[in-house]
């Protein structure tokens, strides 16, 4: 019974758009939690597998996971992990590209395991980012780079999320700074980037909370363990 599985955190990072190939490069990280005291073993039916969604037409999937010995197969609208899930927290990270045709594109996802914390990010100079379901993006700065960030908390299982990507370079319009990216290195490089970003953002928010605390009063209780 996969009711023992949930996502403590889910992050989607749009790296950039390549107008020559007409594709957008993305990375996702899911912190999958088995809250039970026994290992979850997927059943024989397709819906019993550990399933993760991908955009329509996605290609170049590369996967890394802390689940030992887990392989993956393609399934309808995504991929599935073939492996057991022991009690505790496990990371699943994957990169891919998906096609686009104009200056805007929609990214739609149903989060099978929900998410206690969802973050959607992109560098400010890569594309615009907006969502009816997640609200307006805020701009956060890490080092010398600015990122657009959308956030949500306590997404229930199966919650659909739609994001619109704006100001994309039109396919065929010319070279992109993403042309020379070696995507076999995209996963570890992007993971480092995302971890630095989230750590910096958590610190920035904590400092902001401290600055807003009444003089002489207690500091707000900011739960940073999940960050």
Give the overall average pLDDT.
Answer: 80
Total E-strand runs: 14
Radius of gyration: 18 Å
Strand arrangement within the widest β-sheet reads: 4-7-2-1-9-13-12
Query: How much helicity do the residues have?
Result: 10-25%
Write the layout of secondary structure elements.
Layout lengths: L4 E14 L4 E12 L15 E4 L5 E7 L5 E5 L2 E5 L5 E12 L5 E7 L3 E9 L4 E4 L3 E2 L1 E5 L2 E11 L3 E8 L19 H27 L15
Parallel strand pairs: 1-9
Antiparallel strand pairs: 1-2, 2-7, 3-6, 4-7, 5-6, 8-14, 9-13, 10-11, 10-14, 12-13
Structure notes:
The chain is mainly beta. The protein has one helix at residues 186-212, and strands spanning 5-18, 23-34, 50-53, 59-65, 71-75, 78-82, 88-99, 105-111, 115-123, 128-131, 135-136, 138-142, 145-155, 159-166. The protein has a 7-stranded mixed sheet with strand order 4-7-2-1-9-13-12, with helices on one face. Strands 8-14-10-11 form a 4-stranded antiparallel sheet, with no helix packed on it. A hairpin with a 2-residue loop joins β12 and β13 (145-155). It is globular and about 50 Å long. Mean pLDDT is 80; it is low at 175-185 and 216-227.
């Amino acid at each position: 019974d996969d009711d023992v599985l949930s996502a403590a955190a889910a992050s989607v990072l749009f790296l950039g758009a390549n107008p020559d190939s007409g594709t957008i490069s993305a990375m996702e990280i899911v912190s999958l939690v088995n809250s039970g005291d026994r290992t979850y073993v997927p059943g024989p039916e397709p819906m019993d597998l550990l399933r993760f969604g991908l955009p329509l037409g996605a290609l170049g999937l590369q996967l890394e996971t802390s689940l030992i010995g887990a392989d993956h197969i393609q399934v309808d609208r995504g991929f599935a992990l073939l492996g057991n899930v022991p009690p505790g927290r496990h990371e699943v990270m994957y990169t891919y590209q998906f096609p686009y045709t104009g200056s805007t594109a929609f990214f739609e996802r149903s989060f099978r395991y929900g998410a206690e914390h969802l973050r959607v990010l992109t560098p400010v100079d890569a594309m615009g980012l907006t969502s009816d379901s997640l609200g307006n993006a805020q701009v956060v700065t890490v080092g010398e780079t600015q990122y657009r960030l959308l956030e949500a908390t306590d997404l229930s299982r199966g919650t659909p999320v739609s994001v619109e990507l704006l100001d994309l370079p039109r396919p065929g319009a010319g070279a992109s700074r993403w042309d020379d990216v070696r995507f076999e290195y995209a996963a570890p490089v992007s993971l480092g980037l995302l971890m630095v970003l989230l750590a910096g953002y958590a610190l920035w928010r904590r400092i902001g909370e401290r600055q807003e605390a009444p003089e002489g009063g207690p500091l707000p209780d900011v739960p940073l363990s999940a960050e």
